[in-house]
Write a structure and sequence with these properties.
The strands form 3 sheets. Strands 6-7-8-12-11-10-9 form a 7-stranded antiparallel beta sheet, sandwiched between helices. A 4-stranded antiparallel beta sheet has the order 3-4-5-13. With 268 residues, it is an alpha+beta fold. Helix 1 crosses helix 3. Helices cover 17% and strands 29% of the residues. The chain has one domain: Mog1/PsbP, alpha/beta/alpha sandwich (Protein Transport Mog1p, Chain A, 3-Layer(aba) Sandwich), CATH 3.40.1000.10.
């Protein structure tokens, strides 16, 4: 005999028994949308793909001398968040000691090798070697000084009171598995959207280096500006970007500035 509510009479035990009722099913909720916002999650198409390393790279290498003033927009790789411009240091790059000056250090083989590798090179009379707080020494045109009125990473040098030309130096932090010419090619492709942009050449250089030459419209250079970027590897394997830019009509001086920088650049 059974009654409502799940109770029934058990003739063997001679008593009423109640069957356990199953718990109610959990409430139904609508599924959550995938992470990453509209357009799909990161890494699966849509706006999320813009956070890949290639976008920061081309901004870092290509935006160094684009627009009304020369800037380098270097971004943290992977997270897509921009680095704030480095704060202005307390003192500009200072001339390196004369060639042959040996810093005070214990006379060990390692210190001797370090002194030899960082010794000031001989440079043309129109240039002077500066030791930059970024961890390197390099030749810049005589009279040029470290410029802090810039937006971006790395070290900038200009002639005081003249923004028509510049030099810029910064570390390349992308994986060594990506070739120097591939990095500059990506940069050039991004720059193609800039007014008046023209790629003049993109060629490999000695020692695994690569060089990009390009021009674009620029008011600071009074019309057209020519820029030469060289990615080069230091003896310790670290890669650096060296850039010289100036009026396109004075391309010979731009080339001379870059050549002096390449031949004198010494990481510390």
């Amino acid at each position: 005999m059974a009654t409502g509510g799940g109770a029934h009479w058990n003739p063997q035990s001679q008593r009423w028994e109640w069957a356990e009722q199953p718990p109610p099913p959990p409430p139904s909720y609508p599924p959550r949308p995938p992470a990453g916002g509209p357009g799909g999650p990161v890494g699966q198409g849509g706006p999320g793909r813009e956070r890949s390393w290639r976008v920061p790279l081309l901004v870092a290498l290509g935006a160094a001398v684009v627009g009304g003033c020369a800037v380098a927009g270097w971004f943290v790789l992977g997270d897509g968040e921009p680095k704030a411009p480095a704060a202005a240091p307390s003192a500009p790059g200072t001339p390196a000691p004369p060639s042959g000056t040996v810093p005070a250090a214990s006379p060990t083989a390692s210190s001797s090798a370090s002194s030899a590798s960082s010794a000031s090179p001989s440079v043309p009379p129109a240039y002077t070697v500066v030791r930059d707080e970024g961890g390197f020494s390099v030749a810049v045109p005589a009279g040029w000084e470290r410029s802090h009125d810039e937006t971006g990473s790395g070290s900038f040098y200009r002639r005081p009171g003249d923004r028509s030309a510049l030099m810029q130096f910064f570390r390349v932090t992308e994986s060594d598995g990506v070739g120097a010419c591939e990095l500059l090619r990506t940069s050039s492709q991004a720059l193609a959207t800039r007014p008046g942009y023209q790629e003049v050449s993109l060629d490999p250089a000695s020692g695994g280096s690569c060089e990009l030459v390009y021009e674009y419209d620029n008011q600071e250079s009074h019309g057209r500006r020519r820029a030469i970027e060289r990615i080069t590897a230091a003896p310790d394997g670290r890669r650096w970007a060296l850039l010289a830019a100036g009026p396109a009509a004075d391309g010979t001086a731009v080339r001379a500035n870059l050549t002096a920088a390449v031949e004198s650049f010494r990481p510390e």
